[in-house]
């Protein structure tokens, strides 16, 4: 098989990334300048997992460990902004083929062709080499080795990143080097590798495989004494340093050298690729592996993990048990068979294989006794010599495998009990098990190494579509191919079926199949193949039918979850049970690989499994749909209860909504940080829940859900989603004629447009909100709309009108004794006084507002008021006071998690530094503000950008003041 074109050499143009040495980024061959070591560490972390979401928590942990700075998230936002600029080297020349760093909850995803990253290209070359003939294998591995430019990530200061990455990549290099030398020995090139091997053994004296290769090279070169000396040197070294003897492979090679075993002189793969045990009897060597899977792609990380397991076995001679697990159709068997073929030559005593039929659609699982009978026959035991008693059969089987090195592949295991009797008791063998269940019993009791499989990333999924279908489709229809891969959820079975459908009709456009599968009602039907029993639905059916009734019912209801992740509390509301029961059921579904747990107590489901579960729930629901409606209402009521509970830790609510009396359990939130963390994790679900409520015409619930997000929106400012959900909420409130909801939805739309730099649009929404509020009996709601009107009128330069609205609202709030809402009017009145030159009066109003926001513990708006105090102090030439206000604003903004307020504080601190003629500090502060504003899509990015353009000496007092909204 010729090497894959895109792996044979470096790309000639575009971006290339180097991890195997100092971190490098090249564009069209030119080295690109990178930032500081921490930024390079962040980029390296993303490059190590291309096309996979890297969470914000993992980035923070990688860069700082257990003691991150308070501004860790802010700093990473800045790094992300700079990395994005890195992929657009010249202004205005963004290329859709360039890598892209996209925000994807709960972190970031780097979209890039993994072949352009040297570490991934090297791993792919090493994996590819295993299927090649010796000469081509040697060449391919030599190409892989040229990718190393020195110590891995040698210019990265993150010790944690080094500990996580460097050993694996160093080991990959050693495996590639040893495999290349092995191929050279198979080709009879022992003279050529003697010098290289002697240097390597001196450098890595405890690697037994290198010593064995050097012994063989010396022996074939006629230097028998030196070959034996190598063995004695290693034996003494191992005894002195570790107190152990060389492993059985090396001991066997030494014994064969002593008796001049004639097979050692033959330069062929069968001999040079393995070292067989000395024996006077030639045992039967079964070779039962199924044929390799055609068109196998991806799984480089998993293959490398299996390689490491095998390397560990080589070093300590122990047997290894590996369990490859995952959901139906994820490619467990394909990986196991492909990898087993690649390493079969390492097991000279044969390979045993059994399909255990643990989840067979039509046949019952094989018993351990049946499997043992087959294995014993394969090992040469006559039928009449096989014991009837199971324990005796196990004993005979283990005796036959004693002192043998055998690979045993057990495919489709039902549970640990089916596997345990099939495990050999001797060292040197390897057992590879695949199962739809997690097989935790094997991990705990038998020391199995667990290897759970996830869906293929998009790049590998598209490659599989090409290889299994019509080659070249991904180049002719790249967007459609990526969309098809996404619709298949990266599930190899689904991808192969889709590819087969394209191959059966070569003239059919990929986009046509995409159109068919886009409709969720047709997707699973579209992933069937006519006249066969192969289908995604059939694969899922088998796992589903093995569930306990309560687990099956829970699984069906999960099809109603509108989002992609869910907690035990959410599922408890969905099922009408308590969270502990829901958690037990979810853990059981996790064991069956029908649900995953990507983070502790946060669960997820593969897209195709979600479609399958939805089909089941609607098929099982009565004609009225009462069961599914009750379950979905319970889930949305949970989101109402939980969001209301969480928002109160961020800032006081400015409405009368209260869901504390509902029956649903709330998440364990006791502080502001936990509340913000909950909203961050649930945000995609909350957005989808709002859409679901509106689509179901549960309009009051829809606008309630929207309103409960306001405090979170004020902190995080996701502008586009803010507009989207408030627009839906406004439609719902209007649909049912709910004036209170209409006022709040209009006000929320005004706030987002005001904060995102569109005061004209904001004024339109505020004015309509005020008109509706005049119909309400609640005077406080009308006063709120006046405060909002004042903020928009102020930004439009209509100061006298703004003052009138502020004063009217202030009188109303004071008459109502509402000190908290009074603070908003005071802040806005201060802005009017400031701009017309009454700065002392402005500062007095701000001090009153500050006191009231401290009383209410509204940190987000308190940070804004402190920033405003800093601005006024600058204009009053009270530089020390300004620095104190901005410093406290930064601290308060960090405590409440408001990145926009942090950016404003950094901007002000830069202004103060500039006025003190500390231009270097000023520039650093403005750069930080710019990176935060840019990463959040704020129009205020223009302010620090202009300061940086003009230079520190040209700093003027800021012209944009901050007014409060609802």
Write the layout of secondary structure elements.
Layout: H1 5-8, E1 15-18, E2 24-27, E3 30-31, H2 37-48, E4 53-55, H3 56-64, H4 72-86, E5 100-104, E6 107-111, H5 118-129, H6 134-145, H7 159-186, H8 190-203, H9 208-220, H10 224-241, H11 248-258, H12 269-272, H13 300-316, E7 320-325, H14 332-343, E8 351-355, H15 368-378, H16 390-401, E9 407-413, H17 416-419, E10 430-435, H18 440-446, E11 449-452, H19 458-468, H20 473-476, H21 478-487, H22 492-504, H23 510-518, H24 520-526, H25 536-545, H26 549-558, E12 565-566, H27 568-575, H28 579-591, E13 596-599, E14 602-604, H29 607-620, H30 626-647, H31 672-695, H32 699-707, H33 710-716, H34 719-735, H35 739-755, H36 759-773, H37 779-795, H38 799-816, H39 819-835, H40 839-856, H41 859-875, H42 879-896, H43 899-915, H44 919-935, H45 942-950
Parallel strand pairs: 7-10, 7-11, 8-9, 9-10
Antiparallel strand pairs: 1-2, 2-3, 4-6, 5-6, 12-14, 13-14
| β-strand amount | 5-15%
Alpha-carbon distance between the termini?
A: 67 Å
Structural class based on helices, strands and sheet pairing? alpha/beta
Tell me the radius of gyration: 33 Å
Describe the structure in your own words.
One of its GO terms (biological process) is regulation of DNA-templated transcription. It comes from Actinopolyspora righensis. Belongs to the AfsR/DnrI/RedD regulatory family. The protein is α/β, with parallel strands linked by helices. Among the domains are: 135 residues, Winged helix-like DNA-binding domain superfamily/Winged helix DNA-binding domain (Arc Repressor Mutant, subunit A, Orthogonal Bundle); 153 residues, Rossmann fold; 77 residues; 97 residues, Serine Threonine Protein Phosphatase 5, Tetratricopeptide repeat (Alpha Horseshoe). It is 60% helix and 6% strand. The chain has 45 helices and 14 strands. The chain has a five-stranded parallel β-sheet, with helices on both faces. Helix 21 packs parallel to helix 23, helix 23 packs across helix 24 and helix 27 runs antiparallel to helix 30. The longest helix is centred in the first third of the chain and has 28 residues. The protein is globular, with a radius of gyration of 33 Å. The termini are far apart. The N terminus is likely disordered.
């Amino acid at each position: 098989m010729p090497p894959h074109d895109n792996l044979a050499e470096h790309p000639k143009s575009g971006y290339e990334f180097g991890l195997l040495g100092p971190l490098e980024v090249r564009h069209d061959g030119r080295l690109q300048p990178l930032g500081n070591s921490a930024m390079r560490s962040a980029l390296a972390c993303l490059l190590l997992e291309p096309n996979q979401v890297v969470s914000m928590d993992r980035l923070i942990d990688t860069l700082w460990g257990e003691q991150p700075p308070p501004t860790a998230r802010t700093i990473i936002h800045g790094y992300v902004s700079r990395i994005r600029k890195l992929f657009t080297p010249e202004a205005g020349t963004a290329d859709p083929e360039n890598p892209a760093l996209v925000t994807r909850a709960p972190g970031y995803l780097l979209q890039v062709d993994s072949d352009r990253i040297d570490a991934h290209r090297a791993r792919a070359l090493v994996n590819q080499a295993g299927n090649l003939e010796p000469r081509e294998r040697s060449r391919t591995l030599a190409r892989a080795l040229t990718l190393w430019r020195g110590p891995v990530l040698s210019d990265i200061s993150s010790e944690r990143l080094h500990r996580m990455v460097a050993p694996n990549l160093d080991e990959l290099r050693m495996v590639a080097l040893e495999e290349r030398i092995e191929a050279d020995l198979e080709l009879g090139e022992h003279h050529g590798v003697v010098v290289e091997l002697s240097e390597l053994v001196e450098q890595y004296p405890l690697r037994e495989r290198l010593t064995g290769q050097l012994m063989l090279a010396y022996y074939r070169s006629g230097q028998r004494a030196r070959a034996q000396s190598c063995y004695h040197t290693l034996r003494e070294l191992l005894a002195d340093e570790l107190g152990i003897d060389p492993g059985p492979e090396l001991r066997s090679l030494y014994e064969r050298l002593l008796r001049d075993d004639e097979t050692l002189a033959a330069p062929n793969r069968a001999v040079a690729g393995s070292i067989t045990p000395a024996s006077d009897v030639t045992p039967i060597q079964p070779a039962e592996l199924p044929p390799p899977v055609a068109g196998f792609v991806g799984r480089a990380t998993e293959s490398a993990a299996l390689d490491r397991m095998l390397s560990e076995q080589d070093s300590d001679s122990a047997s290894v048990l590996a369990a490859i697990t995952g959901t139906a159709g994820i490619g467990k068997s394909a990986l196991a068979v492909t990898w087993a073929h690649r390493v079969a030559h390492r097991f000279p005593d044969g390979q045993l294989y059994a399909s255990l039929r643990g989840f067979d659609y039509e046949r019952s699982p094989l018993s351990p006794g049946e499997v043992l009978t087959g294995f014993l026959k394969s090992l040469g035991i006559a039928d009449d010599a096989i014991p009837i008693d199971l324990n005796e059969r196990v004993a005979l089987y283990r005796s036959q495998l004693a002192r043998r090195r055998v690979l045993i592949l057990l495919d489709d295991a039902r549970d640990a009990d089916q596997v345990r009797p099939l495990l050999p008791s001797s060292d040197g063998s390897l057992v590879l098990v695949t199962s739809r269940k997690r097989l935790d019993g094997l991990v705990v009791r038998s020391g199995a190494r667990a290897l759970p499989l996830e869906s293929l990333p998009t790049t590998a999924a598209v490659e599989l579509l090409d290889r299994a279908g019509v080659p070249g489709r991904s180049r002719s229809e790249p967007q459609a191919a990526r969309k098809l891969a996404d619709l298949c959820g990266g599930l190899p079975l689904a991808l192969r079926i889709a590819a087969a459908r394209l191959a059966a009709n070569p003239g059919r456009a990929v986009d046509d199949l995409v159109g068919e599968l886009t409709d969720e009602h047709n997707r699973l039907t579209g992933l069937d193949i006519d006249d066969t029993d192969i289908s995604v639905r059939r694969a899922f059916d088998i796992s589903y039918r093995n569930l306990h009734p309560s687990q099956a019912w829970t699984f069906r209801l999960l099809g109603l979850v509108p989002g992609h992740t869910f907690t035990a509390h959410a599922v408890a509301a969905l099922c009408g049970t308590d969270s502990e029961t829901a958690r037990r059921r979810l853990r059981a579904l996790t064991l069956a690989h029908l649900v995953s747990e990507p983070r502790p107590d946060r669960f997820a489901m593969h897209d195709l499994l979600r479609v399958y579960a939805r089909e089941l729930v609607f098929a099982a629901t009565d004609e009225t749909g009462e069961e599914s409606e009750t379950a979905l209402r319970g889930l949305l009521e949970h989101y109402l209860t939980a969001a209301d509970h969480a928002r109160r830790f961020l800032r006081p609510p400015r409405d009368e909504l209260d869901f504390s009396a509902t029956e649903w359990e709330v998440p364990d939130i006791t502080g502001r940080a936990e509340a913000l963390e909950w909203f961050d994790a649930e945000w995609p679900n909350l957005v989808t829940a709002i859409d679901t409520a509106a689509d179901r015409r549960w309009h009051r619930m829809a606008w309630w859900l929207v309103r409960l997000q306001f405090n979170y929106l004020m902190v995080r400012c996701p502008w586009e989603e803010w507009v989207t959900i408030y627009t839906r909420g406004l439609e719902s409130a209007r649909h049912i004629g709910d004036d209170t909801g209409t006022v709040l939805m209009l006000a929320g739309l005004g706030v987002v447009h005001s904060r995102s730099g569109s005061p004209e649009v904001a004024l339109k929404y505020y004015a309509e909100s005020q008109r509706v509020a005049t119909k309400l009996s609640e005077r406080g709601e009308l006063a709120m709309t006046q405060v909002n009107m004042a903020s928009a009128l102020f930004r439009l330069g209509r100061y006298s009108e703004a003052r009138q609205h502020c004063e009217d609202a202030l009188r109303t709030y004071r008459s109502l004794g509402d000190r908290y809402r009074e603070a908003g009017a005071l802040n806005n009145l201060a802005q009017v006084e400031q701009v017309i030159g009454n700065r002392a009066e402005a500062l007095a109003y701000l001090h009153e507002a500050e006191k009231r926001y401290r009383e209410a513990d509204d940190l987000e708006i308190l940070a804004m008021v402190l920033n405003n105090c800093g601005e006024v102090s600058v204009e009053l030439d009270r530089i020390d006071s300004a620095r104190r206000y901005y410093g406290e604003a930064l601290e308060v903004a960090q405590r409440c998690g408001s990145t926009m307020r942090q950016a404003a504080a950094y901007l002000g601190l830069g202004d103060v530094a500039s006025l003190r003629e500390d231009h270097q500090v000023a520039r650093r502060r403005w750069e930080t503000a710019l990176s935060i504003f840019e990463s959040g899509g704020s129009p205020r990015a223009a302010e620090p950008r202009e300061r940086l353009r003009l230079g520190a000496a040209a700093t003027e007092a800021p012209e944009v003041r901050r007014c409060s909204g609802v």
